[in-house]
């Protein structure tokens, strides 16, 4: 995929995937007993990024015209 083919929906897909991965790593670290001082803030930030990228995907994905 060339840089000219990136649109906001593609950016949203990359952002949502990386945000879910980051949240999973933070939760896994907490489950293993690692002390993460900023964990609530980081999880809240990833939740906001997930919602923002979902909105990007919904509104910027091209839709097919309704059937006639």
Helix content: 55-70%
Separation, N- and C-terminal Cα atoms? 33 Å
Provide the residue-averaged pLDDT: 89
Q: Which structural class should the secondary elements be placed in?
A: mainly alpha
User: How are helices and strands ordered from N to C?
Assistant: HH
Q: Rg, please?
A: 16 Å
Number of distinct helices: 2
The proportion of strand residues reads under 5%
Q: How would you sum up the major sheet? A: none
What would the principal axes of the Cα set say about the shape?
A: elongated
Number of domains: 1
- The number of E-state strands comes to 0
Uncertain spans, ≥5 residues at pLDDT below 50? none
